[in-house]
Task: inverse folding
């Protein structure tokens, strides 16, 4: 079985929360901590989750809690976004021992630096989502059209995102080996005696698309009201579909989904004049889906993403400068000295002229935050319109190069000193470079390099330390590009031992 620690008990000391009790599976009631309003409904002591959801308001409260838990430091609150850019080579370290080094050094195994928090946290969130969906189904069986559609759509879309993230962490790329092991597909609540095995990557992607397609017609296309901002809507679903299809190599459907978002005109790209200041604001014109971070609830403070990316000693002596921009990334950004995205960077501890510290999640280089009472409570932008344009550019490259250049140039103009892309000169590497510059710190680089079968070079020279746990560069054939199944999970579900990722 997936261990009880994966599916149920999770230490949420990242948050300042109140205690509640709620049933998490058909056979197990557990005590857990909750953020404000999360699952603030009557619990069941009869081994039955049917009573947890009675009204659409209950469903909304539970959906709020699911999204809040997605901001854990083990997920979008910090480590998942670090994973993508540290392992992707756009970040590097100045020295060992500051924390999360294994993301860079690959010094990980099933028991030490396994990053088991990904597995535990995401499956915990999936279980909550399954509870919500089953609770809705129970009510709808008695009262059809009871007003739950939007929450069902949000839950299905969230579950699709969670499985997409899991399969990228633990499974090979779809176009590399879709028949290889992915992660267990669990779409219902399960008894504690269950012994689920890993599905294939292809089966995971099928489930992801099934959820997204089932959810889309249930979701709102309203993006401008207070009640819809910060929630998964129809366009977030389509943007996620575009992302998933791109990873599958299905360029036709990736382009179709991306263009539906772009042509809706519900969102607009930031101009060069307001791109830098956009990081000081919540729910900007490019933000298709962002997770709210709130003081006294999900604010991780000195454990936050922004704190980990700022310069050593900036604003606090315990700001250690965990990760800085790699030299290759800085060189990429310096292809155009007038690139406006340099405005969200500041100097790092190595030099007063080296722009190696990132301030997207601090609101700006002066630690402005995004309008809340603490500068570490900055929302996490999960899907932005810029990414959708870049998805459209990459997807169109094999279909219509003129169209691909048009979409790329919409983002490339943030480097006004570079020549425009044309049908004659556009390449996949140009698009990949633009993704690196635009989405830096947003968790994409590693996954891009792996799915496109690119080698990843690491800036080891900055620290001057030897790293013996990985080659340099790394290709997707290197076993440790996949995380190990944590030993604690194998202990609880011995059948997973035979399905451990190679190299561990």
Result:
């Amino acid at each position: 079985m997936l261990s009880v620690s994966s599916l149920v008990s999770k230490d949420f000391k990242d948050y300042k929360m109140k205690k509640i009790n709620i049933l998490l599976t058909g056979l197990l009631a557990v005590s857990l901590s909750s953020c404000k309003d999360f699952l603030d409904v009557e619990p069941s002591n009869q081994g039955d989750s049917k009573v947890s959801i009675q009204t659409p308001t209950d469903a909304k409260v539970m959906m709020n809690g699911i999204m809040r838990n997605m901001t854990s430091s083990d997920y979008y609150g910090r480590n998942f976004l670090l994973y993508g850019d540290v392992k992707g080579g756009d970040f590097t370290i100045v020295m060992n021992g500051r924390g999360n080094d294994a993301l860079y050094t690959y010094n990980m195994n099933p028991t030490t630096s396994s990053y088991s928090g990904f597995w535990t946290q995401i499956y915990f969130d999936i279980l909550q989502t399954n509870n919500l969906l089953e609770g809705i189904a129970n009510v709808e069986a008695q009262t059809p059209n009871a007003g739950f559609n939007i929450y069902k759509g949000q839950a299905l879309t969230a579950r699709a995102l969670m499985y997409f993230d899991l399969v990228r962490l633990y499974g090979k790329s779809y176009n590399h080996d879709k028949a290889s092991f992915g992660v267990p597909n669990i779409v219902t609540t399960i008894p504690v005696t269950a012994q689920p095995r890993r599905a294939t990557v292809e089966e995971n992607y099928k489930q992801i698309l099934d959820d997204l397609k089932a959810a889309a017609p249930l979701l709102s296309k309203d993006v401008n009201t207070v009640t819809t901002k910060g929630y998964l809507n129809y366009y977030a679903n389509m943007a996620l579909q575009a992302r998933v299809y791109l990873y599958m190599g299905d360029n036709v459907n990736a382009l179709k989904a991306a263009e539906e978002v772009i042509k809706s005109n519900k969102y607009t790209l930031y101009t060069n004049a307001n791109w830098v200041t956009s990081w000081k604001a919540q729910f900007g014109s490019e933000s298709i889906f962002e997770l709210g971070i709130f003081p006294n609830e999900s604010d991780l403070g000195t454990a936050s993403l922004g704190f980990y990316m700022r310069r050593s000693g900036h604003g606090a002596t315990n700001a250690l400068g965990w990760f800085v921009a790699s030299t290759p990334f800085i060189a990429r950004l310096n292809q155009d000295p007038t690139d406006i995205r340099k405005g969200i960077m500041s100097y790092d501890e190595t030099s007063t002229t080296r722009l190696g510290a990132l301030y997207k999640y601090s609101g700006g280089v002066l630690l402005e935050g995004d309008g809340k009472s603490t500068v570490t409570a900055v929302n996490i932008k999960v899907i932005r319109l810029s990414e959708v344009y870049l998805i459209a550019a990459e997807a169109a490259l094999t279909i219509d190069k003129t169209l691909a250049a048009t979409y790329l140039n919409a983002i490339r103009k943030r480097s006004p000193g570079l020549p425009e892309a044309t049908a004659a000169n556009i390449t996949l590497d140009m698009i990949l470079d633009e993704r690196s510059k635009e989405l830096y710190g947003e968790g994409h680089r590693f996954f891009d390099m792996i799915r496109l079968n690119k080698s990843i070079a690491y800036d080891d020279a900055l620290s001057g330390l030897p790293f013996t746990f990985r080659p340099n560069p790394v290709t997707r054939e290197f076993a440790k590009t996949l995380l190990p199944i944590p030993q604690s999970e194998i202990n609880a579900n011995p059948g997973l031992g035979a399905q451990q990722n190679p190299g561990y």
Observations:
- Residues 1-49 have pLDDT under 50 and may be disordered.
- Residues 301-378 form one domain.
- The longest strand covers residues 18-25.
